[in-house]
Amino acid sequence: MTDPSTVVIRNPRSGDGKRTQQAAKIARNRGYDVLDTSSGTETIALAAEAATRAERVVACGGDGTLNKTVQGVIKSEQLDAVSLGVIPAGTGNDFADNIGIRGIKHAFEVIESGEERHLDLGIANSQPFLNSCVGGLTAESSSRTSRDLKRRLGVLAYVLTTLSTMRSFEGLELRISVGPDADPVWTGSALMVLIGNGRRFPGERMRQANMEDGLVNVVIVEDVPAIDYFSKGAADTLLRRGGSHLTRIKSEHLTIQVDGLPVQFSLDGEMIDATKLTVDSHPGALRFLVGPSYDPSPPDGTQSKP
Protein backbone atom coordinates (compact mmCIF):
# COMPACT_ATOMS: atom_id res chain seq x y z
CA MET A 1 0.00 0.00 0.00
CA THR A 2 1.37 3.40 -0.93
CA ASP A 3 0.82 6.84 0.56
CA PRO A 4 1.74 9.35 -2.17
CA SER A 5 0.43 12.17 -0.01
CA THR A 6 3.63 12.03 2.07
CA VAL A 7 7.03 12.78 0.54
CA VAL A 8 10.27 12.37 2.52
CA ILE A 9 13.27 14.46 1.44
CA ARG A 10 16.23 12.44 2.76
CA ASN A 11 19.88 13.36 3.17
CA PRO A 12 21.66 9.97 3.12
CA ARG A 13 24.83 11.54 4.55
CA SER A 14 23.22 13.04 7.66
CA GLY A 15 24.65 12.16 11.06
CA ASP A 16 26.34 8.79 11.21
CA GLY A 17 24.32 7.48 8.27
CA LYS A 18 22.61 4.73 10.29
CA ARG A 19 19.54 6.67 11.37
CA THR A 20 18.85 7.97 7.89
CA GLN A 21 19.04 4.39 6.57
CA GLN A 22 16.61 3.25 9.26
CA ALA A 23 14.27 6.12 8.38
CA ALA A 24 14.33 5.26 4.67
CA LYS A 25 13.38 1.65 5.38
CA ILE A 26 10.45 2.61 7.61
CA ALA A 27 9.24 5.29 5.18
CA ARG A 28 9.28 2.96 2.19
CA ASN A 29 7.53 0.22 4.17
CA ARG A 30 4.76 2.73 4.86
CA GLY A 31 4.51 3.60 1.18
CA TYR A 32 5.97 7.08 1.45
CA ASP A 33 7.75 8.58 -1.52
CA VAL A 34 11.43 8.87 -0.45
CA LEU A 35 13.59 11.27 -2.46
CA ASP A 36 17.33 11.19 -1.77
CA THR A 37 19.33 14.38 -2.12
CA SER A 38 23.05 14.90 -2.63
CA SER A 39 23.28 18.67 -2.12
CA GLY A 40 21.52 21.66 -0.63
CA THR A 41 20.52 22.91 -4.08
CA GLU A 42 18.97 19.53 -4.92
CA THR A 43 17.15 19.47 -1.56
CA ILE A 44 15.48 22.77 -2.41
CA ALA A 45 14.51 21.54 -5.87
CA LEU A 46 13.11 18.22 -4.64
CA ALA A 47 11.12 19.88 -1.86
CA ALA A 48 9.71 22.47 -4.26
CA GLU A 49 8.48 19.73 -6.61
CA ALA A 50 7.10 17.61 -3.75
CA ALA A 51 5.13 20.54 -2.35
CA THR A 52 3.14 20.81 -5.60
CA ARG A 53 1.70 17.28 -5.29
CA ALA A 54 1.87 16.12 -1.65
CA GLU A 55 -0.10 16.89 1.49
CA ARG A 56 2.95 16.40 3.71
CA VAL A 57 6.62 17.18 3.01
CA VAL A 58 9.01 15.69 5.56
CA ALA A 59 12.73 16.46 5.94
CA CYS A 60 14.94 13.52 6.96
CA GLY A 61 18.33 14.72 8.19
CA GLY A 62 19.65 17.47 10.41
CA ASP A 63 18.69 21.12 10.84
CA GLY A 64 20.43 22.05 7.58
CA THR A 65 18.37 19.54 5.58
CA LEU A 66 15.21 20.83 7.23
CA ASN A 67 16.16 24.42 6.41
CA LYS A 68 16.70 23.59 2.73
CA THR A 69 13.45 21.62 2.60
CA VAL A 70 11.53 24.63 3.91
CA GLN A 71 13.32 26.82 1.36
CA GLY A 72 12.01 24.52 -1.36
CA VAL A 73 8.43 24.69 -0.10
CA ILE A 74 8.69 28.48 0.05
CA LYS A 75 10.06 28.53 -3.51
CA SER A 76 7.05 26.54 -4.72
CA GLU A 77 4.71 29.06 -2.99
CA GLN A 78 3.02 26.17 -1.19
CA LEU A 79 3.97 27.03 2.40
CA ASP A 80 0.35 27.54 3.42
CA ALA A 81 -0.85 24.45 1.53
CA VAL A 82 1.29 21.60 2.90
CA SER A 83 2.06 20.17 6.32
CA LEU A 84 5.73 19.93 7.29
CA GLY A 85 7.44 17.23 9.29
CA VAL A 86 10.93 16.22 10.35
CA ILE A 87 12.70 12.90 10.96
CA PRO A 88 15.77 13.63 13.15
CA ALA A 89 18.69 11.87 11.48
CA GLY A 90 21.37 14.56 11.77
CA THR A 91 24.02 15.43 14.34
CA GLY A 92 22.21 17.82 16.68
CA ASN A 93 18.53 17.73 15.64
CA ASP A 94 17.73 20.77 17.79
CA PHE A 95 14.54 21.73 16.02
CA ALA A 96 13.05 18.23 16.16
CA ASP A 97 13.81 18.09 19.87
CA ASN A 98 12.15 21.46 20.42
CA ILE A 99 8.90 20.34 18.81
CA GLY A 100 8.72 17.14 20.84
CA ILE A 101 10.12 14.54 18.44
CA ARG A 102 12.29 12.07 20.34
CA GLY A 103 13.69 9.74 17.69
CA ILE A 104 13.24 8.07 14.31
CA LYS A 105 10.33 5.79 15.20
CA HIS A 106 8.61 8.53 17.20
CA ALA A 107 8.89 10.86 14.21
CA PHE A 108 6.77 8.48 12.14
CA GLU A 109 4.14 8.38 14.89
CA VAL A 110 4.01 12.19 14.75
CA ILE A 111 3.76 12.18 10.94
CA GLU A 112 0.78 9.81 11.16
CA SER A 113 -1.09 11.30 14.11
CA GLY A 114 0.71 14.36 15.47
CA GLU A 115 -1.01 17.69 16.02
CA GLU A 116 -0.47 20.35 13.37
CA ARG A 117 0.52 23.73 14.78
CA HIS A 118 1.12 27.04 13.04
CA LEU A 119 4.72 27.89 13.99
CA ASP A 120 6.65 31.10 13.40
CA LEU A 121 9.33 31.30 10.74
CA GLY A 122 12.40 33.52 11.02
CA ILE A 123 13.69 35.31 7.92
CA ALA A 124 17.16 36.86 7.86
CA ASN A 125 18.18 38.74 4.71
CA SER A 126 15.48 36.82 2.78
CA GLN A 127 16.82 33.45 4.04
CA PRO A 128 14.66 31.33 6.39
CA PHE A 129 15.66 29.90 9.74
CA LEU A 130 13.51 27.69 11.90
CA ASN A 131 15.67 27.31 14.95
CA SER A 132 18.36 29.96 15.30
CA CYS A 133 20.48 32.59 13.61
CA VAL A 134 23.89 33.06 15.20
CA GLY A 135 26.57 35.63 14.41
CA GLY A 136 30.09 35.87 15.76
CA LEU A 137 32.15 33.34 17.61
CA THR A 138 29.83 30.34 17.32
CA ALA A 139 29.08 31.02 13.65
CA GLU A 140 32.80 30.98 12.86
CA SER A 141 33.15 27.80 14.88
CA SER A 142 30.33 26.12 12.98
CA SER A 143 31.96 26.84 9.64
CA ARG A 144 35.33 25.53 10.93
CA THR A 145 33.98 22.31 12.43
CA SER A 146 34.84 19.39 10.17
CA ARG A 147 32.27 16.84 9.07
CA ASP A 148 34.44 14.04 10.46
CA LEU A 149 34.60 15.70 13.89
CA LYS A 150 30.81 16.17 13.92
CA ARG A 151 30.33 12.49 13.00
CA ARG A 152 32.61 11.32 15.84
CA LEU A 153 31.66 13.75 18.58
CA GLY A 154 28.20 15.08 17.71
CA VAL A 155 27.32 18.47 19.17
CA LEU A 156 30.45 18.37 21.36
CA ALA A 157 32.42 19.08 18.17
CA TYR A 158 31.01 22.63 18.03
CA VAL A 159 31.96 23.24 21.68
CA LEU A 160 35.56 22.12 21.15
CA THR A 161 35.91 24.21 18.00
CA THR A 162 34.44 27.22 19.78
CA LEU A 163 37.04 26.95 22.52
CA SER A 164 39.87 26.92 20.00
CA THR A 165 38.37 29.76 17.94
CA MET A 166 37.92 32.00 20.98
CA ARG A 167 41.67 32.57 21.31
CA SER A 168 41.83 34.60 18.10
CA PHE A 169 38.34 36.08 17.80
CA GLU A 170 38.38 39.88 17.99
CA GLY A 171 34.69 40.61 18.43
CA LEU A 172 32.04 42.38 16.38
CA GLU A 173 31.24 46.09 16.31
CA LEU A 174 27.46 46.18 16.07
CA ARG A 175 24.50 48.56 16.04
CA ILE A 176 21.18 46.85 16.75
CA SER A 177 17.69 48.30 16.31
CA VAL A 178 14.28 46.70 16.74
CA GLY A 179 12.16 48.65 14.27
CA PRO A 180 12.48 49.82 10.66
CA ASP A 181 14.47 53.07 10.59
CA ALA A 182 14.53 53.12 14.40
CA ASP A 183 17.43 54.36 16.52
CA PRO A 184 19.75 51.62 17.85
CA VAL A 185 18.77 50.02 21.15
CA TRP A 186 22.26 48.55 21.56
CA THR A 187 25.66 49.63 20.26
CA GLY A 188 29.04 48.16 21.08
CA SER A 189 31.47 45.26 20.72
CA ALA A 190 29.98 41.77 20.97
CA LEU A 191 31.49 38.33 21.15
CA MET A 192 28.36 36.87 19.55
CA VAL A 193 24.68 37.54 18.92
CA LEU A 194 22.19 34.68 19.25
CA ILE A 195 18.75 34.96 17.63
CA GLY A 196 16.33 32.19 18.49
CA ASN A 197 13.07 31.31 16.77
CA GLY A 198 12.58 27.72 17.86
CA ARG A 199 14.94 27.60 20.79
CA ARG A 200 16.08 29.37 23.88
CA PHE A 201 19.72 29.37 24.79
CA PRO A 202 21.54 27.92 27.81
CA GLY A 203 20.92 29.95 30.94
CA GLU A 204 17.23 30.44 30.16
CA ARG A 205 16.05 27.34 32.06
CA MET A 206 14.61 25.52 29.06
CA ARG A 207 15.37 24.75 25.41
CA GLN A 208 12.11 25.57 23.69
CA ALA A 209 11.13 29.16 23.04
CA ASN A 210 7.58 30.29 22.37
CA MET A 211 7.31 29.39 18.69
CA GLU A 212 3.91 30.98 18.17
CA ASP A 213 4.31 34.48 19.63
CA GLY A 214 5.59 36.22 16.49
CA LEU A 215 8.84 37.27 18.21
CA VAL A 216 12.50 36.31 17.99
CA ASN A 217 14.54 35.81 21.15
CA VAL A 218 17.85 37.73 21.07
CA VAL A 219 20.88 37.35 23.33
CA ILE A 220 23.88 39.67 22.85
CA VAL A 221 27.07 38.41 24.50
CA GLU A 222 29.32 41.41 25.09
CA ASP A 223 32.29 39.75 26.77
CA VAL A 224 33.41 36.47 28.25
CA PRO A 225 33.46 35.99 32.03
CA ALA A 226 36.32 34.07 33.59
CA ILE A 227 34.93 30.51 33.69
CA ASP A 228 36.20 27.00 33.13
CA TYR A 229 34.93 26.14 29.66
CA PHE A 230 35.65 22.45 30.19
CA SER A 231 33.44 22.26 33.27
CA LYS A 232 29.97 20.78 33.26
CA GLY A 233 27.36 23.42 32.49
CA ALA A 234 29.85 25.96 31.11
CA ALA A 235 27.36 27.14 28.46
CA ASP A 236 24.73 27.74 31.13
CA THR A 237 27.27 29.70 33.16
CA LEU A 238 28.21 31.84 30.16
CA LEU A 239 24.57 32.69 29.39
CA ARG A 240 23.20 32.78 32.93
CA ARG A 241 20.37 35.22 33.36
CA GLY A 242 21.33 38.50 34.99
CA GLY A 243 24.90 38.42 33.73
CA SER A 244 26.29 41.91 33.27
CA HIS A 245 27.87 40.83 29.97
CA LEU A 246 24.50 39.93 28.42
CA THR A 247 21.68 41.91 26.81
CA ARG A 248 18.37 40.16 26.04
CA ILE A 249 15.67 41.40 23.68
CA LYS A 250 12.46 40.04 22.15
CA SER A 251 11.05 41.63 19.02
CA GLU A 252 9.25 40.85 15.76
CA HIS A 253 11.87 42.80 13.81
CA LEU A 254 15.62 43.24 14.24
CA THR A 255 18.28 45.06 12.25
CA ILE A 256 21.98 44.41 12.91
CA GLN A 257 24.48 46.78 11.32
CA VAL A 258 28.09 45.57 11.30
CA ASP A 259 30.89 48.13 11.33
CA GLY A 260 33.75 46.76 9.27
CA LEU A 261 34.10 43.62 7.18
CA PRO A 262 31.18 41.24 6.56
CA VAL A 263 30.41 38.83 9.39
CA GLN A 264 29.37 35.21 9.09
CA PHE A 265 25.92 34.32 10.37
CA SER A 266 24.77 30.73 10.78
CA LEU A 267 21.10 30.10 9.93
CA ASP A 268 20.35 26.58 11.20
CA GLY A 269 23.96 25.80 10.26
CA GLU A 270 23.74 27.43 6.81
CA MET A 271 26.30 30.22 6.48
CA ILE A 272 25.77 33.69 5.02
CA ASP A 273 28.04 36.77 5.06
CA ALA A 274 26.60 40.20 5.77
CA THR A 275 27.41 43.71 6.99
CA LYS A 276 23.70 44.30 7.57
CA LEU A 277 21.28 41.66 8.77
CA THR A 278 17.53 42.28 8.74
CA VAL A 279 15.54 39.72 10.73
CA ASP A 280 11.76 39.36 10.76
CA SER A 281 9.44 36.89 12.42
CA HIS A 282 6.66 35.59 10.19
CA PRO A 283 3.97 34.52 12.65
CA GLY A 284 2.30 31.17 12.05
CA ALA A 285 3.92 30.70 8.63
CA LEU A 286 4.71 26.99 9.12
CA ARG A 287 2.09 24.23 9.31
CA PHE A 288 4.18 21.80 11.33
CA LEU A 289 3.43 18.37 12.83
CA VAL A 290 4.57 18.37 16.47
CA GLY A 291 4.99 15.78 19.20
CA PRO A 292 2.84 15.53 22.36
CA SER A 293 5.50 17.18 24.57
CA TYR A 294 5.61 20.36 22.46
CA ASP A 295 4.44 23.32 24.53
CA PRO A 296 2.62 26.07 22.57
CA SER A 297 2.84 28.48 25.53
CA PRO A 298 6.07 27.83 27.48
CA PRO A 299 6.92 30.07 30.47
CA ASP A 300 8.69 33.19 29.32
CA GLY A 301 12.33 33.59 30.28
CA THR A 302 13.30 36.85 28.57
CA GLN A 303 12.49 40.51 28.90
CA SER A 304 9.44 41.91 27.15
CA LYS A 305 9.36 43.34 23.67
CA PRO A 306 10.89 46.86 23.60
UniProtKB/TrEMBL annotation:
Keywords: ATP-binding, Kinase, Nucleotide-binding, Transferase
InterPro entries: ATP-NAD_kinase_N, Diacylglycerol/lipid_kinase, Diacylglycerol_kinase_cat_dom, Lipid_Phosphate_FormReg, NAD/diacylglycerol_kinase_sf, YegS/DAGK_C
Domain of life according to the entry: Archaea
GO MF annotation: an example: kinase activity
Residue span, DAGKc domain: 1-128
A single GO BP: phospholipid biosynthetic process
Gene3D superfamilies: 2.60.200.40, Probable inorganic polyphosphate/atp-NAD kinase, domain 1 (3.40.50.10330)
Pfam families for the chain: DAGK_cat, YegS_C
Protein's UniProt name: YegS/Rv2252/BmrU family lipid kinase
Source organism of the structure: Natronocalculus amylovorans
